[in-house]
């Protein structure tokens, strides 16, 4: 039996995870070495060493999630404690959260930092997939089947938006929408949700206008101004985007060479986090960008393929949710650094520096690998 299980694992997906992490580690060192010394006054390999620890922790959770049977996540007690835990963590942020990039989204204890909103993404994937899988018989009953998971989705999005972290709240909302679409719900039921959402927006519009100064802060509006006309504001709001353009444009096909980026020498703020793809483009050119985008596309498409092959509604919806999370986050990051959308501060999956995001992605991908293993095992050996 164990031999059959081992043969059923998707080793291409496992390889994609580790290769992207290692490629990201290499680029974190290249992108952060100057910033570490000049801005933070630490050793040039400071962020590289911390990211190595992040990858080791993430790899452990990836392996555990890949082995642990995904169907156990559907347990009612597990769902309750999982949801209660994330709500409690988000609640703690209101009192003890640390402000970073104008958002109270971090909990710092000693030298350890945690961003609960990152893990809210996986919570909403597991919870909505589990509830809709259990409600398949009456999935189109608006009161019993449709609305309960949507209530939690909206509640979590509102809490995270109040930090304020609109980028993460928007990602979670879109992830929830993809799970609803893949739940087997009829178009009529989904249309009712759209109408209900529009009505809620109209009801809340006076409150939004009243709180507009708190919602549309100077920091938020600066990102909009920088997006609309970066060269007009290149000394201020458009500074990041203009330097991102310069990095991307100067890379060409093969790039300047690994470690030879000019924009990371103090011109491009935080080159190892949100704008790491700009440094990759400058140093490794189209070739380097293709490695990253190709790897991310492979994982997303593989996730969709696993969802199609899985016979279990719970596994199907979780696979769709995980694939959509990686796709949406990648699109928002790449859209921001290329000026297609305003900059949101969303990291590039598996590549950008950061612990919370990488651990969350590792657990999610581990679950996807486990779903793939069960789907293949049942297809080959349980006919």
Automatic annotation (TrEMBL):
Membrane topology annotation: Multi-pass membrane protein
Catalyzed reaction equations: [GlcNAc-(1->4)-Mur2Ac(oyl-L-Ala-gamma-D-Glu-L-Lys-D-Ala-D-Ala)](n)-di-trans,octa-cis-undecaprenyl diphosphate + beta-D-GlcNAc-(1->4)-Mur2Ac(oyl-L-Ala-gamma-D-Glu-L-Lys-D-Ala-D-Ala)-di-trans,octa-cis-undecaprenyl diphosphate = [GlcNAc-(1->4)-Mur2Ac(oyl-L-Ala-gamma-D-Glu-L-Lys-D-Ala-D-Ala)](n+1)-di-trans,octa-cis-undecaprenyl diphosphate + di-trans,octa-cis-undecaprenyl diphosphate + H(+)
Transmembrane segments: 52-71, 78-96, 116-133, 145-161, 167-184, 191-210, 284-308, 320-344, 350-375
EC number: 2.4.99.28
Database matches in Pfam families: FTSW_RODA_SPOVE
GO annotation, biological process: cell division; cell wall organization; peptidoglycan biosynthetic process; regulation of cell shape
Residues in coiled coil: none
Top-tier EC class: transferase
Assigned GO CC terms: cell division site; plasma membrane
Cited function: Peptidoglycan polymerase that is essential for cell division.
NCBIfam families on file: ftsW (TIGR02614)
Family note: Belongs to the SEDS family. FtsW subfamily.
Protein name, per record: Probable peptidoglycan glycosyltransferase FtsW
Source organism of the structure: Pseudobacillus wudalianchiensis
Biological classification of the source: Bacteria, Bacillati, Bacillota, Bacilli, Bacillales
């Amino acid at each position: 039996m164990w031999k059959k299980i081992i043969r059923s694992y998707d080793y291409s997906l496992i390889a994609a995870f580790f290769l992207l992490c290692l490629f990201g580690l290499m680029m974190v060192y290249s992108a952060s070495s100057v910033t570490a010394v000049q801005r933070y006054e630490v050793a040039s390999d400071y962020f590289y060493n911390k990211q190595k620890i992040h990858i080791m922790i993430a790899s452990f959770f990836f392996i555990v999630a890949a082995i642990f049977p995904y169907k156990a996540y559907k347990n009612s007690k597990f769902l309750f404690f999982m949801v209660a835990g994330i709500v409690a963590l988000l609640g703690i942020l209101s009192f003890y959260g640390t402000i970073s990039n104008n958002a109270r989204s971090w909990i710092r204890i000693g030298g350890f930092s945690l961003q609960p909103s990152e893990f809210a993404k996986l919570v909403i994937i597991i919870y909505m997939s589990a509830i809709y899988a259990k409600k398949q018989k009456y999935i189109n009953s608006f009161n019993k089947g449709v609305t309960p998971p949507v209530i939690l989705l909206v509640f979590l999005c509102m809490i995270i938006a109040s930090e304020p972290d609109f980028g993460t709240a928007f990602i979670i909302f879109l992830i929830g929408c993809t799970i609803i679409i893949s739940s087997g719900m009829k178009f009529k039921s989904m249309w009712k949700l759209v109408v209900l959402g529009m009505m809620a927006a109209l009801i809340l519009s006076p409150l939004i206008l009243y709180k507009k100064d708190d919602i549309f802060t100077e920091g938020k509006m600066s990102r909009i101004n920088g997006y609309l006309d970066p060269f007009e504001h290149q000394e201020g709001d458009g500074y990041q985007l203009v330097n991102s353009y310069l990095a991307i444009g100067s890379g060409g096909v093969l790039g300047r060479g690994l470690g030879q980026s000019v924009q990371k020498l103090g011109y491009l703020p935080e080159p190892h986090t949100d704008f790491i793809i700009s440094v990759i483009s400058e140093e490794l050119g189209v070739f380097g960008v293709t490695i990253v985008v190709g790897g991310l596309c492979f994982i997303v498409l593989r996730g969709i393929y696993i969802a199609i092959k899985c016979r279990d509604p719970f596994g199907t919806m979780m696979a769709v949710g995980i694939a959509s999370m990686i796709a949406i986050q990648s699109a928002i990051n790449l859209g921001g650094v290329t000026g297609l959308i305003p900059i949101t501060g969303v990291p590039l999956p598996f590549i950008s520096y950061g612990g919370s995001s990488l651990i969350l992605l590792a657990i999610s991908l581990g679950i996807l690998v486990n779903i793939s293993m069960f789907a293949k095992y049942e297809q080959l050996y349980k006919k």
